[in-house]
Each structure stands twice: as structure tokens, then as C-alpha cells.
Amino acid sequence: MNDVTIYHNPACGTSRKTLEILREKGLEPRVVEYLKAGWSADLLKDLVRQTGGQLIDLVRERGTRAEELGLLDPATSDAVRLEAMVADPILVNRPIVVTPKGAALCRPQDRVLDLL
User: Fold this and answer.
1) CA 66/CA 72 separation, integer angstroms
2) What DSSP designation does 75 have?
3) Given CA atoms 50, 54, 55, 59 in this order, what sign does their dihedral have?
4) Do residues 11 and 36 lie in contact, with contact meaning Cβ atoms separated by under 8 Å?
5) Which of 6, 12, 47, 103 is catalytic?
6) pLDDT of 44-82, one tens digit each?
7) How far apart are CA 12 and CA 84, in angstroms?
8) Judging by beta carbons within 10 Å of its beta carbon (0-12, 13-18, 19+), is residue 34 exposed, middle or buried?
9) Active site residue 12
10) 6-34 pLDDT, tens digit each
11) For residue 18, what are the contacts with CB-CB under 8 A and spacing of at least 6?
12) Which domains does the chain have, with CATH numbers?
């Protein structure tokens, strides 16, 4: 399985451990450092579709302005969330892993095993 992508933040311990698990399983994923690469609204919408969750599930709370911006409020629209997440990539939680079996926010990192 070489068709694996990890949306990765090298400063995050969970993200590093998830990448390590993938490599221990003999995989060399495409590593996207999303803080450098940024996000598009279409990519985020596609990742939400693949995870089977909701956009709010991908919002990072700790160490961000998510609460201040109202992104954690269930009444906030996904359009507002998307705009904020595209404008400030740190608002997206990590790591997100995509494999042929699907996609998941891998917190805790062992969730990646469900995708292999």
C-alpha cells in the first residue's frame, strides 16, 4: 500500500508517532506539512467526506484561536469554519491520514492501524 498520505506537523508528538507507525509497517507515506502547504476548502471538504465525520471534528482546539473565533460553537456554519481553517492552517487538527481504506484524524496515533 503505497497510496498513503499523512497531513503532518513535525512539531506534534502524536503526528510524529503516527508517521513512525506507518514507517514501522513498511510504508513510506506522502508527507504533507500542512502548516507550510496550507489547505484548500475543497481538500478539507474531501477529507471530512472521507472520514465520515463533520468539519467541526477536524478543528484543533488547543493552542489555537478556535474558541475565540466561535469555531467550536455548533451554531457556527461550516462555511465560516472552512474560511478560518484555510486562512490559518493551525486550526486544523492533526495528523490526518488517508489510505485506500479511508481517512481518519489519528488521535490517538493507534487509530492509524484501522486504516492499514
Assistant:
1) 6
2) T
3) negative
4) no
5) 12
6) 999 999 999 999 999 999 999 999 999 999 999 999 999
7) 21
8) buried
9) yes
10) 999 999 999 999 999 999 999 999 999 99
11) 6, 8, 95, 97, 106, 109, 112
12) 5-115 (3.40.30.10)
